Amino acid sequence: MLRERPPVTDARRVRFTAPRTVDVESGPVPRPADDEVLVEATVSAVSPGTELLVYRDDVPAGVPLDTTIDGLTEPLSYPLSYGYAAVGVVTAVGDAVDATWADRRVFAFRPHASHFCATPDSLVVLPDGVSDEDAAMLATAETATGFAMDGRPRVGERVVVLGQGVVGLLTTALLARFPLSELVTVDHHASRRARSRALGAHEAFAPEAVPDGVADRFPGDGRADLTFELSGNPEALSDAISVTGDDGRLVVGSWYGSKPVSLDLGGRFHRSRMRLRSSQVSEIDADHAGRWDKARRLDYVLDAIEDLEPSSLVTHRFPVEDAAEAYRLLDRDPADTVQVLFTY
Q1: Among residues 180, 82, 211, 85, which one has the least CA distance to residue 136?
Q2: Where would I find the Alcohol dehydrogenase-like C-terminal domain in this sequence (predicted)?
């Protein structure tokens, strides 16, 4: 017998149906298979960088959205569901699932939907000390953690972070915990620069102040030991190279999608011995894999978000029925729209 609460008859899911076109579809609540549970969502977080690429049709043709997340392994083709940060409560369990899963509060790497079925091993059980809104930002905090791990900040280093969207801000908050000599951030928007300073950046500059503003902060060659490019703007990569010193490290966490990147690598870069590397959350870097796996990293992030309180970066909450309005706002008003949550 299927063990469940009284059924809800109307389920909703967000669908990207064409470039800059979002619909919210209604349908029957799904029933879990024997090895699944049914989750009723309370909140889900929009990933502004990646989801705006999908919204704007800026994902390169033929590139899977994410081969490590169920349902996101196919190349982009409208209509599609997307998203990977849902929080909810288990409201029904299949016959082969332990009954103790009922009523558990969980996080799931799943598209935006009011109800969805999942196997228990794909869910993250949430501790009591983590609120639903903080938990909804688990994927973003995990991404920031991966950037910090791949950057390997060292005692006394000078660090620059370009881009202070929600991922950049959480990366800044994590880096502020390290004993750095300087932590400098760069962003177009004054409101985001103010948030950055509040999270621990020693100084924050507008892009037009780079590289002179950064150079004034750093004695000697005026450049950083470690730089993170997290803006999603291809033009920022040249700025990132310009502020990174000889023998420095540059971590590129941005996904530019189909936007072209143009770089002048014929000058200082050629002799700089700079190490430029990509970083993406889906895999653990080989240098860490001997001691770390994704489960250990998630455990760390669950502990960290109790202190980080990433929900403090939430600027807007929309009922899921208003998803189209939320994406329009993210697309047109990035200055004041840092983190959007859908509520159910």
Answers
A1: 85
A2: 167-279
The three-point CA angle 299-305-307 to 5° equals 120
What does the pLDDT average to over 284-289?
A: 90
CB neighbour list of residue 69: distance below 8 Å, 6 or more residues apart: 84, 109
229: helix, strand or coil: strand
Could you tell me which residues come within 8 angstroms of residue 160 by beta carbon, excluding any fewer than 6 positions away? 184, 185, 186, 214, 224, 226, 227, 228, 240, 243, 244
The neighbour count for residue 209, using CB atoms within 10 Å, is: 13
Q: CA-CA distance, 75 to 55, in Å (whole number)?
A: 14
Where is pLDDT greater, at 112 or 3?
112
- Domain 3-126+309-343 belongs to what topology? Quinone Oxidoreductase; Chain A, domain 1 (3.90.180)
The answer to whether the CB of 279 falls within 8 A of the CB of 253 is yes
- Interatomic CA distance for residues 114 and 10, integer angstroms: 9
Q: Encode pLDDT of 231-270 as tens digits.
A: 999 999 999 999 999 999 999 999 998 898 989 888 899 8
Domain 140-278 part of CATH 3.40.50.720: yes
**Across 188-198, average pLDDT:** 97
